[in-house]
Fold this protein.
Amino acid sequence: MQVSRDWTKLNPEVNSKDADNAPIYSLQSEAGSFECSVSGLRWICKGKVSFKYQFCSFEEHMESIKSQQYMPAGPLMDITVIGGKLDEVYLPHWICIDDNPTILDKFAVLHIDDCGVVVEKVSEVTSSHVKLCEPVFSRKAVLMKVYFHLSVKINCNVLIYKTNTAFLTLHVYLIPRDPGLQQELDKKELSYGCKEIRKPNPEESLKMKDCFMLTTDLDGAEIGPEALMLRYESKHPNFFEVFIDDPDTNFKLKLTKENESQEVWTCTLRKDEYQSTVHVQGEHFVDEHRADLIDRVDNTASILDVLLNKKVISQGIYDEIRAIPNNRDKMRKLYSGPLNAAGRDGKEVFYKLLEEYESYLMKNLKKKKTRTVTD
């Protein structure tokens, strides 16, 4: 049943003070029909209301859910009303029902409280949500019967993370459109020093249990595993690893169904997107290779000109360093204070200038780093 209604999107306030726990999202509204821009949760209220929620993991409840022959079909959220009343709530789901209306009565809602796990009937299903009237809140999520869940198409996200290694290595995930699971993967990958590369998600829905292959148009790329099955894994979903030895151009990634040539998703990774070297943890590349850079950088004049133009160093520092007679002492002076004062952003500018003006030296240092890590 399709609900025709205008939903006003609201951005929640986010409280992320405790790094060990999931962020808490807070929302408030007057009377009307609204949708959270983060979770897709919708609500209708006749007066002012305020509530909060956070995403939860299915992990500890999966056995109980499976024993009742259900599987997750939407994110698990812990919702608490602070003030006012939510007259209707619409929980988001990732199931595509457009070409399969017979599955509408196979939906259910998971309700988890201190008494345990309960599966409840639903009053209405739309193309993207399940409706709850006069809801009682705790942890809730949309479910679907297992034997139907495995034959349906779902809306998916493709997540790309660039690892903190000398040569380009990407982790590419294909997951159901679950913002809670994406939040968990962000936390895990970023804790390893990875950087997320945002790209559009597949426009068409994909069938559960189908296998998909990831390819690229760049020669020499290594991608594994050869294929991945689309399924819901609540804790440790598998991913494609893409390894490319020192690329220097834009390239495409393409997702196809196994044994079929028609692509279901594609994106272009641009040089500037994957060459950033900012580390979440650990030393920056220019600090790690300080001795080599001081000893071997020759094009100091050009580098200093751009550092001044980009305001990484001041005019006084520029004049002082330019007056030093040899390149080694110029580099020592640059490192002794101005570069540290500029912080990571300044070091990132310096790194990119080194790639431009000292490209062979930088390639040599990257290979040296890779050999050291391997040994």
